[in-house]
Amino acid sequence: MDIQRALLIVRRWWLPIILGALLAAAAAYGFSKLQPKVYDATAILNVNPGLGTNTGGTDNNALVAAVTEAGVYAQTVKTAAVAQAALAALAQVGQLHHPVDTGALLKNTTTQAASQSTLVTIDVRAQDPNDAAALATALGRALIANVNQHSMGPLRQQLATLNSQVRFYSQDQVSATQSLKSFQAQNPYPSPKQQQLEGTYTDEINRDMGRLGPLHDTINGIQVRLAGLGDAVSLQQPGVASDTPISPRTTVNVGLAALVAFLVLLGVAVLSDLLDARPRTPDDVAALLGLPLLGTVGASKSNAVLATLTQPTTSRADEYRLLRASSGLVAAAAADGHTRALARVLAVVGVREGDGASVVASNLAVTAARAGARTILVDANLRRPALHALFGLSNSVGLATLLRGDDDPRTLLQEGPLPNLRILTVGTAPEEAIDLVSSARMDRLLLALRASADVVVLDAGLAGAPESGVLAALADNTMVVARLRNAGPEALETAGERLRLAGAQTSGVAVTLFNNPAPAPRAPQSLSPGLTPERAASTGSLRGAK
């Protein structure tokens, strides 16, 4: 997809995309405001290396063991036993503002052991910041109590075993010492054999002393633990609550909702454009109709329907002038230059409703009249007449009247807003006159109009109506009007084929770019200067040709 096409998509869809994003943002804002506020509190625990171990020291092995235990304790915090103990402790002091059960506490608690560290973090979420801090602290203390409870029994058993070993080696040392002293007293001058026995006693004493040293170190470490002078886990930081709620994140929710809605609607727009087979350029429209492109109308920003009448100096009016020149709509002249020839007749046919054929026909007639040509504009759109509303004229009599009777068409022409412009509206009961378009009366009517003007412009309705083909065949030239992206390829190809089969002399196609080119039928909108509906319906609205 090229940049130009992408810009066209954005241009067509920008309003629903922006409105959709704003609505999504508003919905997210309202939803966020309805949600209860949630606060977060964090407590930090530290696993103390070397306390409660056999070595009692802080060597590397003890440190590695503490790091491993930190991961185990992080999982232990999220057990029902620890959570129940924490809630029981808080219940005794009545510290919570909102009741919390074990399941909710575990659901709203996250724990983590820092990588290669002895630290354990406990994060608790609650609707009250003080509750969150109290729960985080209580969970940390409950874990410490749980660890101490499960470690005291094995420590006492280990201490008893170590004390028994100390007593054994102490007694053995005392016995060996006494034996050595007695032997030395009895043998002040020992023989070599006696000296060897004396060395055996000395070695035994030294071995006992070497065993007793580490045993005493281990016993001292365990006794420190049991005396409460140190814990395997300590509360390094009590629960600290955040100053602002972590949920709902109104700004984030609003921004995310707007972004998602924008992207979704943009995707819908792109997908719709990809699936839309309607022609995208005026050249595409002309190619599908099999006709040359005469010009485009509506590229300028003017909103005037009758731009050639109310805003004759604007770009929109110039678009109609260029269209008139390219269509060959000029006053007819005799070959000898003296006798006026019959007027040229241009039929304007739309492809689909909303193409703006009536508006184009009206502006072409106005440009011809401004150029000095005596112009007659005929509303031959018997199914959806619009010219009487466009010019604010009476619609009591008109083309339908002429097709049903033998009236002189010149007597039913109404004065237009310009001296050289006269208009023949449809009149009443046009449905009854549809079948009469192909009769000889229509030929005679056009012949009379040709004799009374230099240019005759027919608003011939839509190409899909049978009478439009008849009118196009009767005209000297036919202009097709199609609004860009209003009709699909099949409709355009069918319209071009029907006009060719009807025998119409088609000069080309005018592509309109405006969205609402015509007023609603039978609803007056734009009145020419100095012309009111009352004046058109009463004084001088009917005038015979001179």
Please, could you describe this protein's structure?
With 546 residues, this protein is α/β, with parallel strands linked by helices. Helices cover 51% and strands 14% of the residues. The protein has 3 domains: 3-26 and 28-34 and 248-275, no CATH class; 36-241, Bacterial polysaccharide co-polymerase-like; 295-528, P-loop containing nucleotide triphosphate hydrolases (Rossmann fold, 3-Layer(aba) Sandwich), CATH 3.40.50. The protein has helices spanning 3-34, 60-77, 80-93, 102-107, 129-186, 192-226, 250-275, 282-289, 307-310, 315-327, 357-370, 387-391, 399-404, 440-451, 466-474, 489-502, 533-537; strands spanning 39-47, 109-113, 119-126, 233-241, 293-297, 344-350, 375-379, 414-415, 421-424, 455-462, 477-483, 506-512. An 8-stranded mixed beta sheet has the order 5-12-11-6-10-7-9-8, sandwiched between helices. A 4-stranded antiparallel beta sheet has the order 2-3-1-4. Strand 8 (414-415) and strand 9 form a beta hairpin. Helix 1 (3-34) runs antiparallel to helix 7 and helix 10 (315-327) crosses helix 11 (357-370). The longest helix has 58 residues, at 129-186. The radius of gyration is 51 Å and the shape is rod-shaped.
The CATH topology of the largest domain comes to Rossmann fold
Radius of gyration: 51 Å
Q: Look at the helices and sheets and give the structural class.
A: alpha/beta
Distance between the termini: 60 Å
C-alpha geometry: rod-shaped
Low-confidence stretches: 51-57, 334-340, 518-546
Q: What is the makeup of the main sheet? A: 8 strands, mixed
Q: How does CATH name the architecture of the largest domain? A: 3-Layer(aba) Sandwich
